[in-house]
Amino acid sequence: MARPKGEKKVGGRKKGTPNKVTTSAREGIAKLLNVYYDSGLMSEDFASLEPKERIDAVARLAPYVMPRMQATAIDVSSEATASLAETLASLACDDD
Q: I need a surface site. Which of 33, 42, 54, 94 has the fewest CB within 10 A?
């Protein structure tokens, strides 16, 4: 039965405590990949791929080692754009 609304949570993991199963699974996968990499088989397997497959593999692995860039929006409405000359003129006036 669910606890009534408003009652404090009792028992279970505390907030922020890592999941032991997830941690051990990640460590196991990391060990497996390290052995595969250190043996040289990973390089051989990668080299044996067709160029298209190689690019696909790199594209799939990239998010795990490089952060994904966030899209940037630019407002180009007529109200928001000022000519270069106007911008320079306003900056020159601010210094005086």
A: 94
- Residue 72 to residue 82: CA distance in whole angstroms: 20
What single string gives the DSSP state of each residue in 13-82?
Answer: PPTTPPPHHHHHHHHHHHHHHHHHHHTTHHHHHHHHS-HHHHHHHHHHHGGGTSPPPPP------TTT--
Give residue 17's region: left, alpha or beta (phi > 0; psi -120 to 50).
beta
Closest CA to 13 of 22, 25, 1: 22
Please state the φ and ψ torsions of residue 85, each to the nearest 5 degrees: -65, -45
Tens of pLDDT, residue by residue over 11-48, are 777 888 888 888 899 899 999 999 999 999 999 999 99
